[in-house]
Amino acid sequence: MLYEALSMSTIVVKVVNKTTEAEDIVSLELASIDDDPLPPFSAGSHIDVHVPGGLIRQYSLCNNPAERHRYQIAVLRDPQSRGGSTGMHQIQVGDVVQISEPRNLFPLTPADHYLLLAGGIGVTPILCMAERLATVGASFSMHYCSRSPERAAFLDRIGASQFSARSHVYFDNATARERLDLGKIIDAAPPGTHIYVCGPSGFIGFVTETARARGWPADRVHLEYFGNAPQDTDGDTAFEVKLASSGKSYTIAADRSVWSTLLEHGIDIPVSCEQGICGTCITRVLQGTPDHRDVYLTDDEKAKNDQFAPCCSRAWTALLVLDL
């Protein structure tokens, strides 16, 4: 799973540095207003950022976890942005923003060796993990895939790092011999290796399927999504949602989400990512079968059909009764 529900506590920070790391990618360095140490964090942690315009988005911390004077995040400008990445790119040095304290649902677990795999902007938590593992002297290798050198963030930082010899970068526009041979890398992994992968859903699917095909134990593959895959909505139809507390029913049109429809009627379900990756809006289902379209719930949780993500999921049955 990805992110837990948004914490009610927030921290006010200032933007002390903004750097263009690659094409359409900027990093932001955040520090406390009074220059006091920030709350500690561990490798794999993220923060919720209150984006200008009222949105809330999650970003992984990508600096060394030993640092307390700053948090660093990196943001990819998404051409299909619903306002989050666009708003983040408009932030300037000197601006003041609200964030949550760091939380970690992608932690490093004890292992004999770590195989770190990053796709695109998914390099942010993976880079943080590499910093931590290098600091404690752990055995690991990092493999970073990007479309091209121009779109790959932190190349200079990786090249100058103490773990540069254990880092490998691959580009989609390279020759076949220079591209990632994941099967070969997995086959060569020493016993006791744990895989950590982050990136777009297609990249994560490629890694998990390759590992599964080679008999890799599922409990030694750890992942974090940076976005949900596009959904085929051509067959979507209307259905009814009933609130258990009031008994009122609402029609969810084929082109509307449960969340947005209920909001129009004054029922405000907390949301954050709006695409089923963060878990903020997860709601109990008392009756009916959800059409799960999130990447937050595990397969076992989805099979129970007792909760769903109203920001993106729909229904297989004509009626869903919600614990609202």
From TrEMBL:
Catalytic activity, EC: 1.-.-.-
Keywords: 2Fe-2S, Dioxygenase, Flavoprotein, FMN, Iron, Iron-sulfur, Metal-binding, Oxidoreductase
SUPFAM superfamilies: 2Fe-2S ferredoxin-like, Ferredoxin reductase-like, C-terminal NADP-linked domain, Riboflavin synthase domain-like
Top-level EC class as recorded in UniProt: oxidoreductase
UniProt keyword annotation of Flavoprotein present: yes
Cofactor(s) required, per the database record: FMN
Chain coiled-coil ranges: none
Residues of the 2Fe-2S ferredoxin-type domain: 239-324
Protein name (Swiss-Prot/TrEMBL): Phthalate dioxygenase reductase
GO molecular function: 2 iron, 2 sulfur cluster binding; dioxygenase activity; metal ion binding
Domain FAD-binding FR-type, first and last residues per copy: 8-109
Pfam families: DmmA-like_N, Fer2
